[in-house]
Amino acid sequence: MLTQNATINRRSLGIVKSISKLGIDVPQQVRAEVQIYEDAERAHDAAQSDYDAAASGLRTAEADEFDTARDGFIQAASDLLTFVQGAGTALIDAAVHRLNAAIYDASPAWESAIVDQFNAVVAQHELNEVAGNLPDLGDPRLINVLSFTRAQGDAVDRWKTASGQLRPLWEAYKRIATHHGHEIGPVNSNNVATNMFTACILGHPGTRRTLEAAAGRLSAMGSVPRPDSVQRYAEISPFVVPVLHGYELNLSALADAAAIRRRVQGL
Question: Are residues 136 and 232 located together in one domain of the fold?
């Protein structure tokens, strides 16, 4: 694409798309800015298409139509050059800036809606209530589901079903967090701060020791390759991390999670 903002804009459009898929309201202002960007992008694509067609016309025009084809090509080349040399870049950059500003304004309401939906799914499936019945999936002796008790099997089923519903909410949450400059785990052990923050997003660890243990598990989840003991939790990760360390799964807004981390760490 013409601009370095292309990657940023794909992320921005991804936020809007993920929010829309969740059934969360996308304000008219955001939809209007998406349209402005798409129109700007189409203008460049149209200029390129016109140039290609005019260039082809030079090769196929009849002799008595060549002058007209030449004039059309010169105009198409001039229009495309205008885009390439700055006008198109400025237009798209402006559209990206406008869209990102609109998303920034809308994101607090989106974040709140995601948190509410996420925690409603947790409550609906009683994930915290049945967490104590989850078997130790890190124990290779328990890989065979036939060894589960009825309570253990029910807990695993609830967590797997709920995780399928939580995943798109979590992905949308992470997109918003990235838009605001946050990195969300699991990530590898080189980024302890991110894993600690993520542990607090997923719930309230209560103590520094619990926070460090949860962050350590997130670090293992973010490593490549993952240890087998961690990989066996993949289908319900990272949501299962809090309950594996004795605190409830309860998604918090970014600002609230930052406050939780400060309190737990005594900062």
Answer: yes
Strongest mean pLDDT among 92-106, 119-133, 139-153, 176-190: 119-133
Question: Residue 3: which H helix or E strand, with range?
Answer: none
For residue 177, what are the domain limits?
125-265
Residue 40 forms part of a structural domain? yes
Please state, in angstroms and rounded to a whole number, the distance separating the CA atoms of residues 261 and 42.
45
Do 137 and 10 share a structural domain?
no
Final residue of a structural domain among 102, 136, 170: 102
d(CA 256, CA 92): 35
Q: Return the pLDDT at 228.
A: 78
Residues 218 and 45: their CA atoms lie apart, in Å, by 43
Residue 147 one-letter amino acid: S
- Whether 237 has a pLDDT exceeding 70, the answer reads yes
As given in the structure block, the two tokens for residue 249 are: 């799964």
The full DSSP string for 18-46 is HHHHTT----HHHHHHHHHHHHHHHHHHH
Closest C-alpha among 9, 103, 88 to residue 46: 88
pTM: 0.83
190 and 58 in a common domain: no
Tell which phi-psi region holds residue 252, choosing left (phi > 0), alpha (psi between -120 and 50) or beta. beta
Q: 154 and 68 in one domain?
A: no
